[in-house]
């Protein structure tokens, strides 16, 4: 009997605990429904675009420079350097030790020239502090941008040089001559090692150390006349093959004009024409905006469902020289207004608007939607409309029982 009572008591205790757990969950759910935290977003001007998204193929006129393979090769050009026909792009050394010595000699020579230039700039220094400070601000911006491109060495040295100039200008002691003397002494330990062979180029253009094995896959002169089927075939080849850089020193891009080829639905280009200029943005790199001319593809034949849009660009830098296929956005129409989360848009008495919080009081602002997306809408901003949405309004993006005139405490 005693054991039976113990089992009954344990059963009752378990039931009581279960009831309390269920009650706790219920109370939490009720609280979460009835006590919704008020969240706001500050109204500000935003710019959005109607865009065409595509995976584009990059076509350049480029010549690959193969390695001679008979020694240790040291590239003598930097990415983005302009090369003349017959110019040297690399040197071949008999041993790795000679190659290392030459590379060290070249780097020390470059540093020495930089500090000697700084010494000459300090003689009769007459620059004003404001000018130097503005120069520092620009160098900081250039340095920050170079971080995204993983190419910081040059910008780091430029920033260091202008900071030294400022130190000298405000009277701080900077012993540049000791740097020059130290570099000169170190340089003399290496001496100028002569390569056994120079590798030159037969063409002129912009140099890049990056090759992918697809340089000759598309004929540059035929890029504007490529058919949709030809484009699909080439893209399939690129997708099925692997990138290879072995055996190459680099390449020379011989034409400043290059092409982006993108397969798009004909419906998307109905408002475009051949010869129009558009902005192209590389997805993942919003800092790079290319001004491109539509060469062909914007005026497809009737009954076609897809068209090959060919865009011509003339901007070239180190990162662009490495592109082969890229996800792009082609900007069409531009819209400016105040961006509002889609959930913050309400319809009251048949009028679209948003609720804003002004000194703890809710106000309804009527809006005119000029652009919409899945996640947000862009509403018109009219500074002369006293009843419309204002800049810096606190748009309510989350709240319960919102009502014009209601006070939140």
Oligomer: single chain
The strand line-up of the biggest sheet is 2-10-13-12-11-14
Distance, first to last CA: 60 Å
Q: So how many helices?
A: 6
- The average pLDDT value, as a whole number, equals 82
Rg over CA atoms, rounded to whole Å, is 33 Å
| Largest sheet, strands/sense/barrel | 6 strands, antiparallel, barrel
Principal-axis shape equals extended
Share of helix, binned: 25-40%
Q: Identify low-pLDDT runs.
A: 1-5, 30-34
SSE order in H/E notation? HEEEEEEHHHHEEHEEEEEEEEEEEE
Number of beta-strand segments: 20
Describe, in plain words, how this protein is organized in 3D.
There is one protein chain. The protein has 409 residues and is an alpha+beta fold. The protein has helices at 2-34, 96-122, 129-148, 153-169, 176-190, 228-240, and strands spanning 39-42, 45-59, 62-66, 72-75, 82-83, 88-93, 197-200, 205-208, 248-253, 258-265, 277-282, 285-296, 306-313, 325-341, 346-348, 351-358, 361-366, 369-372, 376-379, 394-398. A hairpin with a 3-residue loop joins strand 18 (369-372) and strand 19. The chain is extended, with a radius of gyration of 33 Å.
């Amino acid at each position: 009997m005693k054991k039976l009572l113990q089992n009954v008591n344990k059963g009752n205790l378990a039931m009581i605990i279960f009831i309390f757990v269920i009650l706790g969950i219920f109370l939490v759910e009720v609280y979460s429904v009835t006590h919704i935290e008020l969240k706001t977003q500050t109204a500000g001007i935003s710019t959005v675009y109607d865009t065409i998204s595509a995976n584009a193929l990059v076509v350049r006129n480029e010549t690959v420079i193969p390695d001679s393979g008979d020694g240790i090769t040291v590239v003598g050009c930097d990415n983005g350097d302009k090369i003349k026909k017959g110019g040297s792009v690399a040197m071949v050394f008999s041993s790795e030790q000679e190659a290392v010595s030459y590379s060290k000699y070249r780097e020390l020579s470059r540093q020495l020239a930089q500090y000697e230039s700084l010494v000459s700039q300090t003689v009769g220094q007459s620059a004003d502090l404001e000018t130097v400070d503005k120069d520092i601000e620009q160098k900081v911006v250039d340095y920050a941008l170079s971080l995204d491109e993983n190419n910081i060495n040059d910008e780091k040295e430029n920033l260091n040089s202008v900071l030294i100039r400022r130190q000298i200008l405000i009277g701080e002691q900077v012993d540049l001559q000791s740097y020059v003397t130290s570099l000169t002494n170190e340089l003399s330990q290496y001496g100028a090692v002569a390569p056994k062979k120079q590798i030159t180029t037969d063409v002129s253009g912009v140099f890049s150390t990056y090759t992918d094995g697809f340089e000759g896959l598309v004929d540059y002169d035929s890029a504007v006349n490529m058919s949709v089927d030809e484009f699909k075939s080439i893209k399939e080849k690129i997708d099925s093959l692997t990138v290879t850089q072995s055996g190459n020193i680099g390449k020379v891009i011989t034409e400043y004009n290059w092409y982006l080829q993108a397969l798009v639905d004909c419906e998307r280009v109905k408002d475009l024409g051949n010869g129009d200029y558009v902005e192209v943005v590389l997805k993942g790199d919003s800092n790079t905006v290319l001004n491109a001319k539509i060469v062909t593809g914007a005026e497809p034949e009737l009954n076609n469902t897809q068209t090959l849009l060919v865009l011509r660009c003339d901007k070239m830098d180190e990162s662009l020289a490495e592109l082969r296929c890229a996800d792009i956005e082609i900007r069409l129409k531009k819209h400016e207004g105040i961006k509002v989360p889609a959930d913050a848009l309400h319809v009251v008495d048949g009028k679209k608007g948003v609720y804003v919080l002004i000194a703890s009081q809710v106000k309804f602002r009527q809006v005119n939607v000029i652009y919409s997306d899945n996640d947000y809408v862009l509403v018109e901003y009219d500074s002369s409309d006293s009843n419309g949405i204002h800049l810096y309004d606190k748009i309510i993006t989350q709240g319960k029982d919102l009502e014009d005139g209601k006070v939140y405490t």
